[in-house]
Design a protein that fits this description.
Layout lengths: L1 H9 L2 H14 L3 H13 L3 H14 L4 H14 L2 H14 L4 H14 L2 H12 L18 H28 L13
Helix pairs in contact: 1-2, 3-4, 3-5, 4-5, 5-6, 6-7, 7-8
Length: 184
């Protein structure tokens, strides 16, 4: 890995590619492949990072970090269909993960697969805010904007209240203490 980066800094693209390929061949355990993937991603060699994440997934099919890495790389590269298929796999392997289902639904909507995405979005919206799986599932997709507007209003009110609280603190000084005096 380090030789590949050194070769790239020296301007030898062919030697750098050969070193990355050698590193992929040597990554014979999931830990080595995942370490290679993370290092390749850090050094912006995304094709090697994706290949190393894929090797990790082949060796350990339930390694969530490898799936997240592949999804991140696909999203950064703008490969929406590839990202959606990875997100769908994540949602399938970890069905209790509301964030994964939401990501899959979002990518489906971007691709225009609206029927499945709308059903998935409705299912995700049945969970209470902050992804509480133990909360009662009575909310619907149509109720979500109302809850969001309540949150917005609460935030605005809290900003107004914090301003009033500051004003009250300024005016609620003990008698006899002038502004600017330390009192001692």
């Amino acid at each position: 890995m380090y030789l590949a980066v050194a070769q790239a800094h020296l301007g030898s693209a062919t030697a750098a590619t050969n070193e990355w390929q050698r590193a992929l061949e040597i990554a014979d355990t999931p830990e080595k492949a995942l370490a290679l993937a993370k290092y390749a991603e850090q050094t912006s060699v995304n094709d090697i990072a994706d290949a190393a994440y894929s090797i990790t997934i082949k060796m350990m099919p339930k390694n969530r970090g490898a799936y997240d890495g592949r999804l991140r790389l696909a999203m950064q590269a703008g490969h929406t269909s590839q990202a959606q298929s990875i997100a769908a796999t994540i949602a399938q392997l970890w069905p209790d993960d509301a964030e994964a289902r939401n990501q899959d639904a979002y990518l489906q909507l971007l691709l225009g697969v609206s029927d499945d995405a709308a059903k998935s979005a409705r299912g995700t919206a049945n969970c209470m805010p902050l992804g509480c799986s133990s909360a009662p599932r009575s909310a619907t997709l149509s109720q979500e904007p109302v809850a969001f507007s309540r949150c917005q209003n609460a935030e605005i009110v809290s900003h107004r209240n914090s301003g009033t609280t500051r004003n009250r603190r300024r005016t609620a000084r003990p008698a006899g203490r002038a502004r600017g005096n330390s009192g001692g």
